[in-house]
Specification:
single chain; mainly alpha
Length: 95
C-alpha cells in the first residue's frame, strides 16, 4: 500500500514538473525540470518494478538514470558553448 501511494505521489510530481517545464521563464529552469522529470521517472520505474515484483525493472531504471545524466550534461554543454564539438571551436573570450 505504501509503495502504491509513493507511485501516485511520483506521478503527481511528474505532472507538476511538466507544468514547470512549460512555464519556465529561462532555459535553465526548463533544463532543471527535464532533469527532475528524468529522476522521477527512474524512481517511478523502480517503484513500479517493486509493485509488480519484477526486480529486473531496477536494471532498466539504472540505465535510464545514466542516460538522463549524460543527456543533461550534453544539453548544458550545448547551451553554454552552442555546440557539442571540440573546445577548439569555442571563441577565445569564453575559454
Amino acid at each position: 500500500m505504501m509503495f502504491l501511494v509513493a507511485a501516485i505521489a511520483l506521478f503527481v510530481s511528474m505532472v507538476l514538473v511538466l507544468v514547470r517545464l512549460y512555464a519556465g521563464p529561462i532555459v535553465y529552469d526548463r533544463v532543471l525540470a527535464v532533469n527532475f522529470f528524468g529522476t522521477a521517472t527512474v524512481l517511478f520505474i523502480a517503484v513500479l518494478g517493486f509493485l509488480t515484483e519484477r526486480p529486473d525493472f531496477l536494471d532498466i531504471a539504472l540505465l535510464y538514470a545514466l542516460i538522463n545524466f549524460v543527456g543533461t550534461i550534453a544539453i548544458l554543454k550545448f547551451f553554454r558553448y552552442r555546440g557539442l564539438g571540440d573546445i577548439g571551436q569555442v571563441p577565445e573570450q569564453e575559454r
